[in-house]
Amino acid sequence: MDQGNNSRVTQFVLHSLSGPQELQHIYFAFFTLFYSSVVLGNLLIVLTVLSEPALHTPMYFLLSNLSFIDVCLSTFATPKMIVDFLKEHRTISFEGCMAQVFFHHVFAGGEMMLLVAMAYDRYVAICRPLHYAAIMSVHKCTVFVVGSWLIGVLHSVSQLVFIVNLPFCGPNKVDSFFCDLPLIIKLACTDTYILEILMISDSDVMAMSSFVLLLISYTLILITVRRRSSVGMAKARATLTAHVTVVTLFFGPCIFIYAWPFSNFLVNKVLSIFYTVFIPLLNPLIYTLRNKEVVSAMQKLSRQQVSF
Fold it and tell me: E strands, 78-205, where?
């Protein structure tokens, strides 16, 4: 921190998981393993979908994009957290902190919209199967994906404008392993009550609108599934279960964290780690282990690689 009458914070101190040095080394190994699994698992899904013509459908196109954005969501902060386990002083520059805030909300907002697009895809496939090919065209899927990223960027910019010009003169300690926006706002040397309300409102509108759209889609799907008892509906139930599980795991921590956004609960830190490290790994496991088509395509891809 620069000293003087116009002192300004040039870096922040991040508080990751605490413990003795030996425990920090265990954390380093544990999270390195998990992060590597996230990247390899999700990229494997992307590669499998790209290489298998049978998976060139709207559902798997959206799934591959979800896997890609999961890699991004895990990468914006996890590698630094892993490196920081080996450091005594865990700091991040002001510019780096703002970059983390930006990318966090881009990827989280984009994933919310992508989950809505996937729910809509399942709604059309189950509730309007005869019109599925006409409704879920390649053009519409591309619009969904591009729109998800654009909405994520717009949401992130609307969040970043709250803090980028705030005066930060100390303290500079963030009780998290990354620059979480609610915690950063608390460090500003000015009254931020109005900004806190605006930030919460912006995030709540984003999360609640996505959640309501998901709730409507899955409710309509459940009604349709209950009315039918064919073999196709059994497959639909399995797919729906995977979607609902992913949505619950994704929105659960978000709702809890933003219900008490300016508190320093230890559980918030744990949920933040779960949200950015573990969920991106659970998504590919949930979708692939319950999906015979993806598993079969992966096995085919592995046989091709071995043959080479």
Answer: 91-93, 173-174
Q: Which residues neighbour 120 within 8 Å (Cβ) at sequence distance 6 or greater?
A: 144, 213, 217
Which structural domain range is residue 163 located in?
11-303
Tell me how crowded residue 150 is: count the other CB atoms within 10 A of its CB.
14
pLDDT tens-digit series, residues 282-305: 877 887 766 778 878 887 877 776
End-to-end CA distance of the chain: 56
Selection from 248, 236, 253 nearest residue 290 by Cα: 236
Whether residue 259 is contained in a domain is answered as yes
Does residue 4 lie in a domain region?
no
Question: Looking at residue 83, which CATH number applies to its domain?
Answer: 1.20.1070.10
Q: How many domains does the chain have?
A: 1
Domain-embedded: residue 100: yes
Buried b (16+ CB within 10 A) or exposed e, 15-33: bbbeeeeeebeebbeebee
Q: For residue 14, what are the β-bridge partners?
A: 174
pLDDT at 218 over 80: yes
Kindly state whether residue 21 falls inside one of the protein's structural domains. Answer: yes
Those residues with Cβ within 8 angstroms of residue 173's Cβ, 6 or more apart along the chain or in another chain: 12, 13, 15, 187
Q: What value does the mean pLDDT take over residues 126-135?
A: 89
Q: What is the DSSP code (8-state) at residue 174?
A: E
Cα dist from 101 to 28, 75, 220, 249, 270, whole Å:
23, 13, 36, 22, 18
Instruction: Indicate the DSSP class of residue 247.
Output: H
Q: Find out whether 176 and 90 touch, Cβ atoms under 8 Å.
A: no
